[in-house]
Automatic annotation (TrEMBL):
PANTHER family: SLR1343 PROTEIN (PTHR38657:SF1). It comes from the Bacteria. This is Cryptochrome/photolyase family protein. It comes from Mucilaginibacter agri. InterPro entries: Crypto/Photolyase_FAD-like_sf, PhrB-like, Rossmann-like_a/b/a_fold, UV-DNA_repair_photolyase. Gene3D superfamilies: 1.25.40.80, Deoxyribodipyrimidine photolyase-related, DNA Cyclobutane Dipyrimidine Photolyase, subunit A, domain 3, HUPs.
Length: 510
């Protein structure tokens, strides 16, 4: 009897052992299903990039001589859900055994487990052979600790993998070089264009329109720049190592009106669908550093490697340690709706206009734009974490729940009460002005806390601490904020808090 092997849309790992030899009795299946288009509304580029890459992947497998069934969204046989399609294929091809790779999403993991329990044929589960850690390694590492400290996990990863180590000690005698990094962009180093692959996805777009898929965001050739094959993913990795790595860390927190990505790698999509692996990225970065130690400082290399072997693996581990409860946490009991300009970028606040506008145009924004501009505003203005999650999960090209929800609900919204972050990531206009040129051309005045054209971030910032005193006052990392608050002139504080109330009452018009 034949074996049926399911490949999910984020499991396009051509180096997986499944594909290393031709097996005559194996049929691979990839499917575009409505089920996956509807659990949240996605950015149009995300749908197109997933479908196009899945199609390329199926094509490559066929070229290598594997037997592949590809169900496109408009295929007459497509029942639009994994279960129904799988049942049909099992019957059609007289399948005797079903196999799948561990899904990275809790929802799909549950669905496939339930599906298999009902199966009358034999089944098996394989690892995705992508991550550096197993699902429950982070949970076991921290045991029953209340909060998880990424830095200690990261150090253990460095030690275990022997990355940037001299014996037991870190290369350069420090584990973390953040202190040397994270500068404002000063124009000293010329910016490079982000790599954009000009793919024509118009036929695919016509197909999803015909099928009535609901989506948001924009797409055109100039903005649709995603690597859609392993070859292109490797090209992006090379481009990053040669051109961007030398300044990655220095400017990783900087933001500009006129440039969307500065020195960020934009490799998250290729990684999250497993076209390239963390090992390959680390090897390429270390290889580049080895060749150009005089040009590339350790701070750049360590900063980048920490994102890959630290943050990324850590977030995945937190996800498996804390789901499904994690998705229900709402520490501040926030309940506001997202302002309506989250869907069109149409706000007078220039930083949000640029960061959201860019997210809608490119399905991508860098970490600080997601955290310190968009997420910061959502948190200060008390948006419900469900709505915040839904938006982030929909809008970003790299958004898969395991890495989205941990960043959004955990790191950015502090809805987990401090499992991931030791304090809420909130900031007033002073931070945004320090790290960007957004404030220079803004309708609002970043220096003002109240009154005409006062920047909303300023009053909302103090309102946030004031309204959450019971929850935050005793946090050792923010206690000093409350000391500052107590020292405020009473009348001045009153004006700031009144200003915040006015803004909170008109967020859609800001
Ligand atoms: P670079 O800045 O070049 O970093 C390199 C790589 O490090 C990334 O490709 C990514 O794989 C990894 N990385 C860096 N930071 C993180 C992090 N915090 N968590 C996990 N991996 C990280 N990343 C996603 O992949 N998917 C998401 O849905 C997602 N949602 C986010 C939501 C919020 C509110 C925040 C604050 C961050 C989110 N991130 C998410 C993390 C980070 O912003 C993106 O990984 C990054 O912007 C992707 O662009 P890049 O490849 O150029 O990253
Ligand atoms: Fe954003 Fe305020 Fe600066 Fe305007 S002044 S760009 S709203 S931080």
């Amino acid at each position: 009897a034949k074996k049926l092997r399911l490949i999910l849309g984020d499991q396009l790992n051509s180096r997986h052992h499944w594909f290393q030899k031709k097996e005559r009795d194996v049929i691979y299946v990839l499917m575009e299903v409505m089920q996956e288009q509807q659990y949240v509304m996605h950015h149009v580029q995300k749908i197109l990039a997933f479908f196009a890459t899945m199609r390329n992947f199926a094509h490559q497998l066929k070229k290598l001589g594997h037997e592949v069934v590809y169900l496109s969204l408009d295929d007459a046989d497509n029942q639009q859900s994994f279960d129904e399609n799988l049942n049909n294929l099992i019957e059609k091809y007289h399948i005797g055994r079903f196999e799948y790779q561990l899904p990275d999403e809790y929802r799909l993991d549950e669905q496939l487990k339930t599906f298999c329990h009902k199966l009358e044929i034999d089944y098996g589960i394989a690892d995705t052979e992508h991550f550096l850690t197993t699902r429950y390694e982070v949970r076991d590492f921290f045991g029953d600790k209340k909060s998880y400290l990424m830095e200690s996990f990261y150090r253990s990863m460095r030690t275990r993998l022997g990355i940037l180590m001299q014996g037991k000690d870190p290369v350069g005698d420090k584990w973390n070089f953040d202190h040397d990094n994270r500068k404002k962009y000063d124009g000293k180093v010329p910016l490079k264009k982000p790599v954009i692959y000009n793919h024509d996805v118009s036929a695919l777009k016509t197909m999803i329109d015909k099928m009535g898929v609901k989506y948001f965001g924009n797409v055109d050739a100039e903005h649709f720049g995603w690597p859609l094959s392993r070859k292109e993913a490797l090209q992006s990795l090379n481009y990053f190592c040669e051109n961007l790595l030398p300044h990655f860390g220095t400017y990783e927190d900087a933001m500009l009106n006129e440039h969307i990505s500065l020195f960020h790698s934009r490799l998250s999509f290729a990684q999250n669908i497993k076209m390239i692996s963390p090992q390959e990225i680390v090897a390429a970065v270390l290889g580049e550093w080895d060749k150009r130690k005089d040009e590339i400082s350790l701070a750049q290399v360590e900063g980048y490697i920490r994102q890959i072997i630290g943050w990324r693996e850590f977030m995945r581990g937190v996800y498996w340690a804390k789901m499904p409860e994690f998705a229900t946490l709402n520490f501040f009991r926030h309940k506001n709706k997202l302002p309506k300009w989250f869907w069109d970028g149409n706000t007078k606040m220039n930083c949000l206009n640029k960061c959201i506008g860019q997210s809608l145009d490119y399905a991508w924004a860098h970490h600080i734009q997601r955290l310190m501009v968009i997420g910061n505003f959502a948190l200060l203005s008390g948006c419900h974490p469900d709505d915040v999650d839904e938006w982030y999960l929909g809008v970003y090209i790299d958004a898969l729940q395991w890495v989205e929800i941990t960043n959004t609900r955990g790191m950015s919204q502090f809805a987990d009460g401090g499992i991931i972050a030791s304090k809420p990531y909130v900031a007033s206009a002073a931070y945004i002005n320090k790290m960007s040129d957004y404030c220079k051309t803004c309708h609002y005045d970043y220096k003002k806390k109240h009154g005409d054209r006062a920047c909303p971030f300023n009053s909302l910032y103090w309102n946030f601490f004031d309204r959450n005193a019971d929850k935050l006052e005793h946090n050792p990392r923010i206690g000093m904020m409350y000391k500052t608050l107590q020292k405020f002139d009473k009348a001045e504080l009153q004006k700031i808090l009144e200003q915040a109330e006015v803004y909170l009452g008109m967020v859609d018009e800001l």
